[in-house]
Structures are given as C-alpha cells and as structure tokens.
C-alpha cells in the first residue's frame, strides 16, 4: 500500500460519514413535517454503504485484498418504509376527515443514536488519518 492509498481510505470514510450526518440532520429537521413538496408527511431516509465485493475463494480474496484499495462509499439513499404516526388532532390543518394527522416516521431518539454512531466513526477516520500522517512524517525523518 502506498501513501496515497493510506490517505484515501480514511478520506472515503470521512466523506461517507459526512453524508450520513447530513441525512440524519435532515431527518431531525423534518421530525414534525406533515407536508412535503411530494405530498404527505416527510419519510425518513437512511444511507447504504458499500465497498467493492470480494470474489472467489478465501485465498484469492485475501490476495485481491492485498492488491486493491477498499474505500467505503454511499451506494444509495433509501426511504424507511415503516408506517407514519397517526395522531388525533382534529383542529390541525392537515387532519383527514376522521381528525387524524399523519406525522413522519422519524424517531428522534433513534436519530440521535445514529448521529452518535456516525460521529464516532468520523472520529475514528480522523484518528486513522492523523496516524498515517504521523507515520509519513516519521518516515521522512528517517531519511535525514
């Protein structure tokens, strides 16, 4: 692995976690949005991460891992298919004929846990980036 690959791996993790944090913040910002431009309440979104898949036997996968760079990326953003929350509020402007309002399927506590997890992953990638930088500087000092 060369130095540029060593920097590229945590950098891809930082990009992926940044995108995840953006989606989480969007979910939290729309926790009470009963109307969207598409119609209906806001639907919670989540990210799906991926890397390039391994093929063949374990030995060939191990050899391939040594020779290829694995970076994480956001492969898609998916909508949560859980049902919306129905709350009886007959005076709400978005209430249906029975007096129920559909609220987003966003759970603020779940989003906060996801945010903490994303922040910890982001911090781990920063730590790895700093370690690679430190090793590169130490390698340069050897040549003096």
From TrEMBL:
Residues 11-34 form the Flagellar basal body rod protein N-terminal domain. Residues 98-141 form the Flagellar basal-body/hook protein C-terminal domain. It holds the Pfam family Flg_bb_rod. GO terms for biological process: bacterial-type flagellum-dependent swarming motility. One of its GO terms (cellular component) is bacterial-type flagellum basal body, rod. The keyword Cell inner membrane does not apply. Keywords: Bacterial flagellum, Cell projection, Cilium, Flagellum. InterPro entries: Flag_bb_rod_N, Flagellar_basal_body_rod_CS, Flg_bb/hook_C_dom, FlgC. It is found in: Bacterial flagellum basal body. Belongs to the flagella basal body rod proteins family. The basal body constitutes a major portion of the flagellar organelle and consists of four rings (L,P,S, and M) mounted on a central rod. The rod consists of about 26 subunits of FlgG in the distal portion, and FlgB, FlgC and FlgF are thought to build up the proximal portion of the rod with about 6 subunits each. This is Flagellar basal-body rod protein FlgC. It comes from hydrothermal vent metagenome.
């Amino acid at each position: 692995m060369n130095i540029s690959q060593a920097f590229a791996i945590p950098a891809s993790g930082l990009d992926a976690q940044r995108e995840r944090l953006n989606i989480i913040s969007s979910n939290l910002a729309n926790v009470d949005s009963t109307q969207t431009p598409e119609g209906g309440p806001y639907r919670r979104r989540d990210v799906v991460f991926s890397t390039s898949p391994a093929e063949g036997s374990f030995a060939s996968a191990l050899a391939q891992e040594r020779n290829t760079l694995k970076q994480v990326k956001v492969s898609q953003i998916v909508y949560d298919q859980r049902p919306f929350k129905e709350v009886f509020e007959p005076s709400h402007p978005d209430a249906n004929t029975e007096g129920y309002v559909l609220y987003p399927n966003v759970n603020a506590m779940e989003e906060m846990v996801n945010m903490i997890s994303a922040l910890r992953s982001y911090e781990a990638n920063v730590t790895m980036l700093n370690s690679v930088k430190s090793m590169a500087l130490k390698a340069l000092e050897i040549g003096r």
